[in-house]
Amino acid sequence: MPNRTIDKKKIEHYKKLLMAMKEKVSHDVKNMAHNTDNHGNESSDISGHVLHMADVATDMYDKEFNLGLASHDRKLLQKIDDALLRIEKGTYGICLGSGKPISQARLDAIPYAEYCLEYQEELDKKKK
Known about the structure:
It contains 4 helices and no strands. The chain is an all-alpha fold and 128 residues long.
């Protein structure tokens, strides 16, 4: 069923927005992976001196933090890809839970939104 709630011009706007988001997030993930890979074994500096335990702990924290960000970004990339697929199928802007239209204000804020605000609030209540 093609989406009749959003005109073609607006759909094209969201598609461009999602593609730009995808490019930025993909770039961020690649940079984080590159930075994490380049840190290798940091328990000693280039002069061969052992670093202080606090420095090693900070390095480990930074790596874990970056891995967490990369994981979040990969999930975001999947949501963006799913939204682009919904555009191709003609179901973009339709709530996956209720089948109701997602407001354009919500799509402007979160272009990859899967659910209308009311349904998302129900989901959030169930999680608590």
